[in-house]
Amino acid sequence: MDIDAFLAVRRPTWDRMDQLARRSRLSGAETDELIRLYQSAATDLSTVRSAAPDPDTVTRLSQSLARARATIAGRHEPAWRDITRFLMIALPAALYRIRWWTVAVTVVCVALAAVSAWWVATEPGVLDAMMTPEQQQEYVQNAFAEYYQPGAGFAGVVWTNNAWIAALCIGIGITGVGPAYILLSNALNIGAVAGLMATHDSLGVFFSLILPHGMLELTSVFVAGAAGLKLCWAWIVPGGRPRARALAEEGRALITVAIGLVLALFVSGMIEGFVTGSSLPAWLKILIGAVALAGFWAYTIVLGRRAVRAGETGDLSEDEAGYTVAVAG
């Protein structure tokens, strides 16, 4: 099929459909016309995809059809079923698909934190280079614990800050360097604090104040870093897809992860704001954090495996994202 000739003949019809679809109000006759044009354009899309799969034409026409369908069916606010689908299908599928990336990032970051803690605690002069002995005593005995002040305000600040870090990891993920730097900085800083506390025989205090919220909070940061690195990998190794298409598909799915992490970090923020600095026994606070982390992984693995087996990726549906053409290989 001569795609140029086909476009020359059919484009006026598509333009008319676009014109009607963009109107806020349609008469009865215009609604009937829009439905006829929609049906005709849907046939055109099928023809183009099978006979002359031009990516630009497929994308343009699929977007026009989506707009026309919204006008015909009536635009609506997201229904509860859309929220349910996001929470029960799209989000766990997106998290499940990057689970091994998350595990790898977690292992590397924990190892780096351990090395940082060991170096600070054993290498002569490192602590003195960080702060004076008086400052060390003040930090260990007062400042570290006083940071975790119970309250909604503190929880809100923590939640906002951590959500921003997670979004940044994903947003600059295509660079590869951005999320790696954020992960490295966090791992080394946490390790340095652990080394300082260990040197002053306060490692138990460190873990009792870090673990309750930190298990879920740090896991969320690791997930964000893994998502950012996965996006970079999709750009480097698109897997037989055009690079732009690979980035679009992975990017949309990973935006799903970013939204989900806002919810996970809200939970960790509530734990940090109301549990970590509370008067509860240390074992109970750590147990609460462990339950939250176990819930996150159960959600990811149980619901995510089911969704992925059903063909979900966390991306938008085909009609929402725009139809794509087949790629050889």
TrEMBL record:
<feature type="transmembrane region" description="Helical">
    <location>
        <begin position="218"/>
        <end position="239"/>
    </location>
</feature>
<protein>
    <submittedName>
        <fullName>Stage II sporulation protein M</fullName>
    </submittedName>
</protein>
<feature type="transmembrane region" description="Helical">
    <location>
        <begin position="251"/>
        <end position="271"/>
    </location>
</feature>
<feature type="transmembrane region" description="Helical">
    <location>
        <begin position="98"/>
        <end position="121"/>
    </location>
</feature>
<dbReference type="InterPro" id="IPR002798">
    <property type="entry name" value="SpoIIM-like"/>
</dbReference>
<feature type="transmembrane region" description="Helical">
    <location>
        <begin position="191"/>
        <end position="212"/>
    </location>
</feature>
<dbReference type="Pfam" id="PF01944">
    <property type="entry name" value="SpoIIM"/>
</dbReference>
<keyword id="KW-0812">Transmembrane</keyword>
<keyword id="KW-0472">Membrane</keyword>
<feature type="transmembrane region" description="Helical">
    <location>
        <begin position="283"/>
        <end position="302"/>
    </location>
</feature>
<feature type="transmembrane region" description="Helical">
    <location>
        <begin position="163"/>
        <end position="184"/>
    </location>
</feature>
<keyword id="KW-1133">Transmembrane helix</keyword>
